[in-house]
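Need the bound structure for glycine, inputs here:
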Amino acid sequence: MKVLVVGGGGREHAIIRKLSESPKVEKIYCAPGNGGISCDAECVAINAMNKEKMVTFAKDNHIDFVVVTPDDPLADGMVDIMEEAGVPAFGPTARAAIIESSKVFSKDLMKKYGIPTANYEVFGDSDAALAFIQEHQTFPVVVKADGLALGKGVIIAVDKNEAENAIRSIMEDKIFGQSGNQIVIEEFMTGPEVSVLAFTDGKTVKPMVSSKDHKRALDNDKGLNTGGMGTVSPNPYYTDEIAQECMKTIFLPTIDAMNQEGRPFKGCLYFGLMLTSNGPKVIEYNCRFGDPETQVVLPRLQSDLLEIMMAVRNECLEGITIEWSNEAAACVIMASGGYPGKYEKGCEITGLNSKGQIDDVIIYHAGTKKENGKFLTNGGRVLGITAIDGTLESALKKAYDAVSNICFKNAHYRTDIGK
Ligand code: AMP
Ligand code: GLY
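Answer from helper R.:
Posting the output first, comments after.
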């Protein structure tokens, strides 16, 4: 089969490397891809948001199956347009992707169907939100832009003043554009965070192995929120007992709720959970594989990813057995200095072989380009150095050993992933 993967980050690289293990896969294209991906797939210079060009490419090149993974094209209906054109595609429709693209939708869904989450209020104008905060007594509170905001739309305000600033900057200054037309103000929860990605065809839900992201830019969870600076799998806090509870109180009820709403979800549903003293609660849903969670989850997958994705799309997931390795995986993100703020691009990366790899680990490329045989930085998150081994400690050691052999100007990484 000829497969087209839409996107071009570390997550897509991990998906492509796993898909290429499938005996069914004859050729993989990636649009737009990146420098490292170009060693494993044929990259096509089409922007991930360009639906018309993407469909034309898929038709002209007789693509058998399309995998759409980034949030923006999913919310914009990339899967819908592929399916309408007769090209089978993995991922939710725009109607279902709203579970991520509108926090107001997802919070109201959880409330309506009794799915545990933080208490919240929704506001459509800043005056009402500011009046609410004036009367509010408990801090911190969490202020969230309704729409997509590159993973930056959540502000944890420690006092009244910070909450007012957050409301004004999101709703009046529009720092996240139209995504801030509505906001959610919610209760601050505490507890370990867990990411669970799950395959679902709208009827059956099969959770993947758990993982843990490290969202802050600096060690000891200091600094700004990022897309994710590193991950480990399994998540040591997520016991079998908790997994069973989540299946009963969160995963199945969410799939049922989406069906009840006439928005059946097919694809990978990401549950961002917090294990609070009152049980597991949902922080957020994503309508897609997490990045960099995918980079530690998929290396542990022992079954055929293409077969699973096709079963999701064809609504026959129940009959598929999914096997996982018992090993642990760790991913350390090497980022450009300054990320998630301003950073330089085009710096040469040394220490990688001609395929952009190093022995003993897997290097998932997030923001690189390849020019004249050299790999150059081309994004905030540059590389995800990933190792899989018998224990979390040994996987981390392998990953950090490899990190110390890779160089680029102002490279920044956390030294406490998995600690
Ligand atoms: P999100 O983009 O929704 O995943 O939020 C980013 C991060 O903010 C999460 O990973 C949590 O660490 C934190 N966060 C979001 N909502 C809450 C909440 N209600 N209570 C505590 N922390 C939160
Ligand atoms: N790592 C979190 C996300 O993919 O949004």
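Comments: The longest helix spans residues 240-260. The pocket of adenosine monophosphate (ligand 1) is lined by residues 118, 142, 151, 154, 186-189, 193, 215, 225, 272, 283-284 (CB under 6 Å).
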